[in-house]
Design brief:
alpha/beta, Rossmann fold, Elongation Factor Tu (Ef-tu), domain 3, 2 domains, six-stranded parallel β-sheet, 14 strands, 32% helix
Length: 318
C-alpha cells in the first residue's frame, strides 16, 4: 500500500481510484464494511482501491484540551487499512485552514480534481466541509454532477442491536471491558509504542516489564490486564502472552501514567523495540498496596490469572 500525505500532485496511477472516505479511528467492523465495499467496487471497475482519511483527527484541532481519545494513531490506522487490501491511503493534513474548505470545494478540488475519483463509499453518518455542511445527499448530488458514483453503507450493528462506533468502543475500554471493545473492533485493541527505560523495580522481583508511554492513545481503565505482546521484527510481529499494568503505580509512588507489560516465559532485551500490546481481558483495577511485599504477591497472582486467561484465548493477537 502506498501512503500519500497530500492530494496533489499525484502520479497518474494514484488517481482514478475508488475511495472509502472517513476518519476511521479504530478501523472497527463498521469501518471495515465501508472499506471492503470500496474494494469490491474497485475490483469490478478495475480501479485502484483507496482510502482517504484526515490527520490529526478533527477533534484534536477543534478541542485540543480534550483528554487523549485516539484508538488508532496514523501508524496503526495505516497498518489496519493495509491489512484490508487497500492499494492507496491518502492521509490529508487537517487544520483550521483545511476546515474552512466548503463541501463543494472539497469535492471539486480534491475528489473530482486532484484525485479524479471513479467512485466513493461513505458511512451513513459521514459529513464534511465547513460547518459539516456536506451531507451524504449533497455528496451524491455532487458525484452526479462531476461524474463519479457514491455508495452509502448503512450502520453496522452488533447482533442486530448495538451500533458499532468508535464512541462505543471507547466507552467499553474506559469501563474496563476490553473483550466487548474487541467484539466491535473485530480484533483486540492494541497500544503501539517503543519500549522505554523504566525504574527497573519489576526486574528485582522476577517480573521485568516492557514500559510504553500512552502518548495520544485513549486511556483505558487503570488496572491489570491479560495481554498479548507483539514484538515487531521486520515486516512481522512475534506474539507472546503477557500480563500488563496500566496506571500510575501508586504503591511505588508513580507520577506518570504508564503501560508496563511483563512477557510470560520470555527473556531478552526489548529496550528501543517497537511493540504492540493487545488487551485481551481485564483482571483487576489498579490499587495501592500496604507494602511492596504485598504488591509482589499480587503480581504473582496476576500472572497466574493471566496464564489461565491465555489458556482460553491463545491467539488473540495477529
Amino acid at each position: 500500500m502506498r501512503l500519500f500525505r497530500h492530494h496533489a500532485p499525484l502520479p497518474a496511477d494514484a488517481t482514478g481510484a475508488v475511495l472509502a472516505l472517513g476518519n476511521f479511528d479504530g478501523v472497527h467492523r463498521g469501518h471495515q464494511t465501508v472499506i471492503a465495499a470500496a474494494g469490491a467496487i474497485a475490483r469490478s471497475l478495475g480501479a485502484p482501491h483507496g482510502v482517504l482519511t484526515f490527520e490529526p483527527h478533527p477533534r484534536q484541532v477543534f478541542r485540543p484540551d480534550d483528554a487523549p481519545f485516539r484508538l488508532t494513531p496514523l501508524r496503526v490506522k495505516a497498518r489496519e487499512i493495509e491489512a484490508l487490501g487497500a492499494d492507496l491511503l491518502f492521509s490529508l493534513h487537517f487544520d483550521k485552514e483545511f476546515a474552512q474548505r466548503t463541501a463543494e470545494n472539497f469535492v471539486e478540488e480534491i475528489l473530482a480534481g486532484a484525485l479524479a475519483v471513479r467512485h466513493v463509499v461513505v458511512g451513513y453518518d459521514f459529513v464534511f466541509g465547513r460547518g459539516r455542511a456536506g451531507t451524504v445527499a449533497f455528496l451524491k448530488d455532487m458525484g452526479a454532477r462531476h461524474g463519479f458514483g457514491v455508495d452509502v453503507v448503512a450502520a453496522v450493528a452488533e447482533d442486530g442491536a448495538e451500533v458499532i462506533s468508535s464512541t462505543r468502543i471507547r466507552e467499553h475500554l474506559v469501563a474496563g471491558r476490553p473483550t466487548d471493545a474487541a467484539r466491535l473492533l473485530g480484533r483486540a485493541w492494541e497500544i503501539d509504542g517503543r519500549v522505554e527505560h523504566g525504574d527497573a523495580r519489576g526486574r528485582t522481583i522476577g517480573f521485568p516489564t516492557a514500559n510504553v508511554m500512552l502518548a495520544d492513545y485513549l486511556r483505558p481503565a487503570a488496572g491489570v490486564y491479560a495481554v498479548r505482546v507483539g514484538i515487531e521484527r521486520d515486516a512481522a510481529a512475534e506474539w507472546i502472552d503477557g500480563v500488563a499494568n496500566i496506571g500510575m503505580r501508586p504503591t511505588v509512588g508513580g507520577t506518570d501514567l504508564r503501560l508496563e507489560a511483563h512477557l510470560l516465559d520470555f527473556s531478552g532485551d526489548l529496550y528501543g523495540s517497537q511493540i504492540r500490546v493487545a488487551l485481551i481481558d481485564f483482571i483487576r483495577p489498579e490499587r495501592k498496596f500496604a507494602s511492596f511485599d504485598e504488591l509482589k504477591q499480587q503480581i504473582a497472582a496476576d500472572a497466574l490469572e493471566a496464564r489461565a486467561l491465555h489458556g482460553r484465548t491463545p491467539s488473540a493477537g495477529r
